[in-house]
Amino acid sequence: MNNRIDELKEKIKIYDPADQARILSALEWAKSLHEDQKRASGEPYFVHPLGVASILVNLNLDGDTIVAALLHDVLEDTATTAEHIEERFGKDVRKLVEGVTKIADIHAKNKTIQEAENIRKMLFAMVQDIRVILIKLADKLHNMRTLEYLPPDRRKANAQDCLDIYAPLADRLGISWIKDELEDLSLKHLNRDAYDQIKGIVALKKQDRENFLTRIQDAILAETKKLNINVTVMARAKHFYSIYQKMRKRNKGPEELFDLFGIRILCDTVDDCYTLLGTVHHLWKPIEGRFKDYIAMPKSNGYQSLHTTVMSFDGKLLEIQIRTKEMHQIAEYGVASHWLYKKGTTAEIIKPQDLSIVNRLKDWNSPDMTTFLDDIKQELLKDSIFVFTPQGKVIELPAGSTPIDFAYHIHSAIGDHCAGAKADGTIIPLTAELKNTQVVEILTTQNAHPHVNWLRAVKTAKARSKIRAWLQQNDETLIIEKNIVARKKSTPTTGTQSPHPGQAAQPAITSGQKFENAIQTVIQNQNLPKGILQVKVEDERNMMIRFAQCCKPVTGDPIIGYVSRGRGIIVHRSTCKNIHFIPDFEERKIEVEWEKANSQLVKRFKIEARKANDLFSAIEGAVRKHQGHLLEGRIEETSQEHFTGFFTLQLEHREDLKQVIKSLKNVPAVLHIQVIA
User: CA-to-CA distance for 433 and 410, rounded, in angstroms?
Assistant: First the structure.
């Protein structure tokens, strides 16, 4: 540890003497506070805050951030108070440490709710001070570097969190080297076989590869010398996770991929970038459809560069990036690059509102913690597209968005009266997937209105919320709650016969009744918390939608609804045997359906297995190994020695299905697998 302390002391010499003194004071104090604590590896705990601080020094962040990094665990793990921190290092450091501590300070009964609340706190912390998130990312990165000391289930859970949340967040903040390392470390623990295979292929024929890239560099330098353009040409190895993604996309092994490495050309001006693009295309034939101009159309995180792929020497595909030196710093360090170029206070260096993701968070409205996490993953942390209004205004939307999403982004009234759409002057379906850089025009009429099918098409939380609100207010035949859509069955009139004298008419649902139970769906063998769901049936609002506990329907099951007396709408599987024993079921049944049809592949499995304590986690690990997601599941005891399990899985790619089945068969306790839907 002394060597690591000496390394940090050497690195902070770039700071002014006052900052150096404060950092060293924080170092000694934090070391003494954590003195008796150990990590899972057996090392002194202080190596962790030391490592986090070192990562942030590499980003050249200000002195307060480095001090806060050294102290980021003291409120949670020691007896130190926030007041003590402020006395020693001031209010800014106290706020940073408190901000990082609060992110990890949620202890909900349900793990899904807890994770969602943590992510919500972390993301909204960006609105106040971006440095809180930078400390958290450095904290995650250092923990991922030492993940091998944790038990297998915790390793996989942490790796999946990084892949789902923290790597995309680093990408949104433009810090590419942190994103790349988090992705590679996640792959290492989620799919070790693929990681080792890629590592082995990359290590092969190293000399041949270096000779090839030297030929490329020499050819480029010879041409730029003639043009009198000052350039730096560097070879770049693609990180393992990007190679893994290419393997999956093209259904090839790493040994079949030629473009495992690329060339990056740095120059001085934007004009030089475009001149160099022409030079490269003169040297080698460009591949159609593989050119991207991120200089004219920067990414939301500020990234700028020209990307092209050419057919180079010996028929090998070669990806080339061309950018200025300043663009390169922004590409590597993202929001942190502001500290590389500017002096002054942090408030002057960067404003959170300058970041696209922060502006989108300000408009975010997802109070339901059970859907918040999925919405964040699908909308804020996934790739974006940029489309234009006819007036030339740039609109950023999550990839896969439709004209309906675009319409609601412009204005709720436009969305509610959306009747058609044009992209680049051509009529397209309202549910079509928009493409990058399209000019989108929305056609409206006063008679047009939202349709329940729109819920299945839209990608943005805003559009989904507005559609649901309109349908609930204007379509009396629908009841919409959670991801269930119930369609009321119309009751035929039987004339004007009055109730029997002295006998009051029995209402279908008791008005104003309070309900205490809620949807109970098993997710990873744990129930969601109970609570009241408010929906509207005719004029009654104190209703709820529940899942029947006898058949426990899960996403994708064929379902039917029953309007109970005093307990709301009960959703059963259509095949549930118990519905035949409900006397008035035919009179009280209503149509219900799942609200959203996922664009990803969703499959249901029935698994016969021997009893094992770790069966659930083993099945989840087998699914995650191939980037699948276990949506729901339950295990039923069929004998003293055997379980029967029913699981709903979501897969990114159809071709992953065979691999998941193979992986599940390798779980020792699993005896038989059947795909049932």
Answer: 17
Among 190, 213, 229, give the residue marking a domain's end.
190
**Containing domain of residue 637, as a range?**
601-675
Number of domains in the chain: 5
Q: How confident is the model at residue 350 (pLDDT cuts 50, 70, 90)?
A: very low
| CA terminus-to-terminus distance, the chain | 55
Of 167, 173, 182, the C-alpha closest to 134 is 173
Does residue 158 share a domain with residue 17?
Answer: yes
DSSP classification of residue 500: P
If one counts every other C-beta atom within 10 angstroms of the C-beta of residue 400, the result is 18
The yes-or-no answer on residue 77 being catalytic is yes
What is the 3 state secondary structure string of 88-157? HHCHHHHHHHHHHHHHCCCCCCCHHHHHHHHHHHHHHHHHHCHHHHHHHHHHHHHHHHCHHHCCHHHHHH
> Are residues 251 and 173 located together in one domain of the fold?
no
Catalytic pick among 7, 43, 76, 148: 76
Q: Is 405 helix (H, G, I), strand (E, B) or coil?
A: helix
- Distance of alpha carbon 18 from alpha carbon 500, whole angstroms: 90
Same domain, 170 and 213: no
Average pLDDT score over residue span 384-396: 79
Residue 462 shares a structural domain with residue 518: no
In tens, the pLDDT along 474-527 reads 876 666 665 666 665 544 433 433 333 433 323 332 222 222 222 222 222 222
Of residues 19, 77, 540, 593, which has the active-site annotation?
Answer: 77
Q: Are 292 and 307 in contact (CB under 8 A)?
A: yes
Q: What pTM was estimated for this model as a whole?
A: 0.60
Among residues 128, 155, 190, which one ends one of the domains? 190
pLDDT of residue 349: 42
More confident site: 280 or 551:
280
Instruction: Give pLDDT, residue 98.
Output: 87
